[in-house]
């Protein structure tokens, strides 16, 4: 629509949904659509330091909600070329693999923490270059957090358009007094174009109607 100033805008990525508000951020090369989210658990900790949390896999849950409905956000994702969401897990004596995962927009369990992979894959970004920390030479770790050392960080960017956005975070292994994860989930960010905008669909319809009229007129003249 010609807008190029950062701010809140109401968009309608599909005629099948109602418009909803997002944040738009512009650069010289592209524009980013940002969908804000809220946490059910406001602290961002699986267990507050000095207190006891839960130990079973996935026993800690934080449900994530977004400004738009699942249908509205999904329509935006489908119309965008790229979408991503960042996640940072800062762990202290708290394993990630086997104890933590997230749920996609359909509520399916996803066990990897970076990139675009099948939901059943496991591991973090450090796995890609075999740089994950470990506490002894015999230990095989798929995430830095798996070493159960202090202040281990696993950061990643989820880029799967079929799975985003993240709707729930689940963790465990926080039953000791000083074992916890401080996690930080970014907003959903989309960019690029993958399809026809509803405004373009309407314009195409009007042009087709005009062209059809001209075709009829030309036929009448030739007769």
């Amino acid at each position: 629509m010609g807008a190029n100033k950062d701010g809140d805008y109401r968009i309608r990525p599909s005629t099948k949904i109602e418009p909803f508000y997002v944040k738009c951020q512009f650069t010289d090369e592209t524009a980013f659509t940002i969908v804000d989210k809220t946490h059910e658990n406001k602290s961002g900790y699986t267990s507050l330091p000095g207190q006891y949390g839960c130990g079973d896999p996935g026993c800690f849950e934080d449900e994530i909600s977004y400004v738009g409905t699942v249908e509205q956000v999904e329509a935006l994702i489908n119309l965008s070329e790229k979408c991503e969401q960042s996640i940072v897990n800062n762990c202290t004596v708290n394993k990630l693999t086997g104890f933590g995962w997230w749920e996609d927009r359909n509520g399916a369990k996803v066990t990897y923490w970076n990139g675009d992979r099948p939901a059943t894959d496991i591991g973090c970004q450090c796995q890609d270059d075999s740089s994950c920390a470990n506490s002894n030479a015999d230990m095989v770790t798929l995430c830095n957090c798996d070493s159960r050392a202090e202040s281990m960080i696993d950061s990643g960017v989820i880029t799967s358009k079929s799975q985003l956005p993240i709707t729930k975070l689940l963790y465990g292994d926080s039953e000791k007094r000083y074992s916890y994860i401080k996690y930080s989930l970014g907003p959903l960010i989309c960019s690029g174009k993958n399809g026809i905008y509803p405004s373009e669909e309407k314009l195409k319809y009007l042009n087709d109607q005009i062209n059809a009229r001209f075709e009829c007129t030309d036929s009448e003249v030739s007769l």
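Helices lie at 70-79, 198-222. Residues 198-223 form one domain.
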